[in-house]
Design a protein that fits this description.
The structure is a single chain. By secondary structure, this protein is mainly α. The protein contains seven helices and no strands. It is extended.
């Protein structure tokens, strides 16, 4: 008796699975552009890998459709890495040196233009809106308050894992 009941339960379960996998995700009364993208098993949209990566030129570079660009990126990254390894300098010190050289070049260019009576193109003015500054300040205030709260909990011994990491 139990074997026939188990058999009927397994048949019902199999029947339910077939019905579930054959149903479209959307109702048949509503037709949308996404209905064509949905698979019959699970209802997930099937997109190409290129679309997942973002498409366009970036996807072409990632998937090596333009062979020279990714190859050049790898060569330049390797050369930069070797220069950092050989020189022993950190990335921050190299960036600050490059910015210092840039400022010196712009200074010389401006003074040379004055001596040669040439008109330079004006540099664009950088204007920060008050709303943007307030948003940045609010963001950093939240982060700093969270760090202070975490430091407070560590000093009071409420977070033993982090407390013993520093001890």
């Amino acid at each position: 008796m139990e074997s026939s009941q188990d058999l009927s339960n397994s048949e019902a379960n199999l029947h339910w699975r077939k019905d579930k996998t054959m149903e479209p995700c959307c109702s048949s009364t509503t037709v949308s552009s996404e209905a064509n993208d949905q698979s019959s098993e699970g209802g997930y949209r099937q997109r190409s890998t290129r679309a997942v990566v973002g498409g366009g030129k970036g996807a072409d570079v990632i998937f090596w459709k333009w062979r020279r660009v990714p190859f050049a990126i790898i060569i330049v990254a390797t050369i930069v890495w070797l220069l950092f390894e050989r020189s022993g300098l950190s990335f921050v010190s190299v960036c600050s040196d490059v910015l210092l050289v840039l400022v010196v070049v712009l200074f010389i260019r401006a003074n040379g233009a004055v001596l040669l009576n040439k008109q330079l193109q004006p540099l664009p003015e950088l204007v920060l809106s008050e709303d943007m500054v307030n948003n940045a300040a609010a963001f950093f205030r939240v982060k700093i308050n969270y760090m202070c709260l975490m430091a407070h909990d560590i000093t009071l011994g409420k977070d033993f894992k982090i407390f013993f990491k520093f001890c």
